[in-house]
Amino acid sequence: METSCHLLSTVFFIITITVFGLVQSQNDGSDRGLVGAPGSTIQVSVSDPTLQKVVRFAEGRYNVGSNGIYLRRVTKIVSASKQVVKGVKYSLVVELGNTLCKKTAALADLAICEFHADPNKLKTEVCLFEIWDIPWQSKSTVLKQKCQPAAPTKETNKIETLPTSPSTPDEESVELLSAFKEFVTKYNRSYSSQEEADKRLRIFQENLQTAQILQSLDQGSAEYGVTKFSDLTEEEFRSLYLNPLLSQQNLHRPLKPAGPARNPAPPSWDWREHGAVSPVKNQGMCGSCWAFSVTGNIEGQWFLKRGELLSLSEQELVDCDRLDQACGGGLPSNAYEAIEKLGGLETETDYTYTGHKQSCDFSTGKVAAYINSSVELSKDENEIAAWLAENGPVSVALNAFAMQFYRKGVSHPLKIFCNPWMIDHAVLLVGYGDRNGTPFWAIKNSWGEDYGEEGYYYLYRGSRLCGINKMCSSAVVN
Ligand SMILES: *[C@@H]1O[C@H](CO)[C@@H](O)[C@H](O)[C@H]1NC(C)=O
Ligand SMILES: *[C@@H]1O[C@H](CO)[C@@H](O)[C@H](O)[C@H]1NC(C)=O
Fold this sequence. Notes:
- There is one protein chain.
- The chain is α+β, with helices and mostly antiparallel strands.
- The chain has ten helices and 14 strands.
- The chain is 29% helix and 20% strand.
- Helix 1 crosses helix 5.
- It has three domains: 4-24 and 157-221, no CATH class; 41-149, Roll (Nuclear Transport Factor 2, Chain: A), CATH 3.10.450; 237-476, Alpha-Beta Complex (Cathepsin B, Chain A).
- One 2-acetamido-2-deoxy-beta-D-glucopyranose (NAG) binds at residues 370, 372, 478.
């Protein structure tokens, strides 16, 4: 039992790395039901147009900072992921090589510079870039750049050396050791201790055995064998190279359904005009949108039940909500549960936002607002509007792609740019109405007051755009 479970997980590991290495371009996810926790890291398709822009930016910065003779250009995007923060944080792993253009050529011409044909002159490097992009300010920043020479280009993945037939332990270990030695040389591995090296050898062996099984079962043209990931366990691989996209099922803890509104929705409503909304806040470079969405909702609920508008603490959730991932994303449904367990929220002043996870410093004595339960709203936009007008601002989540480029007006992106299944950001619905006949949702964002219209985003209402109707919820204060 134990063995087969283990085997399964290792098989999965190899499939993952094979997909990753060989067919990554098919991984655009456009029609799959991927709902990540708002704020979490998401894999980006290599063909994504914004990714191309980010890659060009990274190339430019790389060339400005390098002291080589030739301009260098990306030969291959190995992997790319993004996370919605204030703007978007991209993580790219790319290969770069020398072009025939000398460093004296204008950077603008880079796209037409051809690569050196000779691998020794191409001098391929693998680089990790982290880029922080704030499109509405036309601002990009390199947060991290780490490069190392790529392994020699010879691509022989197939393992023919390992015996499949029973062999004496000695023969086997000689084969294994020589394959491992080759791997260590090819990928320039160094291990801190003998123990570590032994452990890596065992992982390497397991991965190779799995690769052989896969090879024998494969009915297509895939090849399996040693890759640069061969000394990593599945878990290590996933955390280093894949997005921590949450499992697609069990993601959304079912909440109690909210009772329907008593009356139909009035033509328009805006909770800002009724004092239920605190000033716009700023999540900074942390995937904590979910915490801002939830505090915004509770601020409204507390105001409507207790008559006092407080500004509540997101940092308490970042530090103390163990059901969510702090700056790595989270779900409003989890956050309500965590707040109930903690006993309530402190104010913004008592538990100030820092934008990174710290140890939990919550004290029950400072609780300023509590909640008693939480509810999930209908997915019908008219019913959501009616509920909002009667009960207060609503926590929602959506695909934030269009938000990245938004300046003002009512945004109505094409569906293909705003896949309702790729939810990556959580915000607060504070009202709705019509602007010159165009129905909209008024959305409080958490990217500062200099974003959009004084910190707000207006999205077309009535065609479930960007998945805006998919994750609507509210806390309940008794
Ligand atoms: C190999 O790795 C070591 C440290 O891990 C580094 O100092 C060295 O430059 C690397 N060599 C190559 C050829 O990548
Ligand atoms: C709501 O929760 C608060 C704090 O946990 C508690 O003191 C209060 O009794 C609850 N109210 C109801 C009606 O359950």
